From TrEMBL:
<dbReference type="InterPro" id="IPR046156">
    <property type="entry name" value="DUF6158"/>
</dbReference>
<feature type="region of interest" description="Disordered">
    <location>
        <begin position="59"/>
        <end position="80"/>
    </location>
</feature>
<dbReference type="Pfam" id="PF19655">
    <property type="entry name" value="DUF6158"/>
</dbReference>
<protein>
    <submittedName>
        <fullName>DUF6158 family protein</fullName>
    </submittedName>
</protein>
<feature type="compositionally biased region" description="Basic and acidic residues">
    <location>
        <begin position="61"/>
        <end position="70"/>
    </location>
</feature>
Length: 80
């Protein structure tokens, strides 16, 4: 895996790495060769897993849940 082991990053560095990798994901998906996309996927998963390990309980925005999507009538979400 390229880059610093996510477990060795402090919280600020981890968030900066996550912001960068999420910002570059779309371009890598559309225009990167297969090996770059594979490396990006592995790195992104490692960073996200480290974040989740450190923050197992996160604030969840109600609108980001299925129930919240249903209440605002998002297309493709079944209404209950």
């Amino acid at each position: 895996m390229a880059g610093v082991d996510p477990g060795r990053l402090d919280d600020k560095e981890l968030l900066r790495e996550l912001e960068t990798i999420h910002r570059t994901r779309h371009d890598t998906l559309l225009h990167g060769p297969g090996d770059a996309l594979d490396a990006h996927t592995v790195r992104m998963a490692a960073l996200e897993n480290e974040y989740l390990r450190r923050h197992p309980i996160r604030a969840v925005t109600p609108e980001r849940t299925r129930e919240g999507a249903r209440s605002r009538g998002v297309p493709g979400e079944a209404r209950g």
